[in-house]
Q: What sequence folds into this?
């Protein structure tokens, strides 16, 4: 009979770690807030056609946005708190985690929300189910 080189308690530990990952991963994903408020800004048109973090080409006329943490493809409703205007965008780019704004949208979205002239607005960002 060949003896196992891995002690039984080590195998058991591996099983528990795998189980913890399976159980905790959905809980951690659900821990991300579904709503936040903060400042929105918009991209410069100089990025037109360049690749976003998701690999898609940036389109200044698109209904897209960059966010610090939401997964690519997440649909978000962005509402300008000053005028109530809103737009649904798709996350296709990543922002630097140290950025002061909570979301960066295209010029088209900024225009729709009514802050293309000021360059920023206080917004509410909600995940669309």
A:
């Amino acid at each position: 009979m060949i003896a196992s080189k891995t002690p039984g308690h080590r195998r058991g530990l591996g099983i528990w770690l795998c189980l913890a990952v399976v159980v905790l991963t959905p809980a951690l994903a659900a821990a991300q807030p579904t709503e936040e408020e903060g400042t929105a800004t918009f991209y410069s048109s100089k990025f037109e056609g360049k690749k976003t973090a998701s690999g898609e080409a940036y389109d200044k006329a698109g209904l897209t946005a960059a966010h610090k943490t939401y997964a690519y493809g997440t649909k978000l409703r962005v509402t300008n708190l000053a005028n109530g205007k809103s737009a649904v965008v798709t996350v296709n780019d990543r922002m630097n985690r140290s950025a002061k704004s909570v979301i960066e949208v295209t010029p088209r979205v900024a225009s729709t929300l009514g802050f293309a002239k000021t360059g920023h607005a206080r917004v509410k960002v909600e995940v669309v189910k």
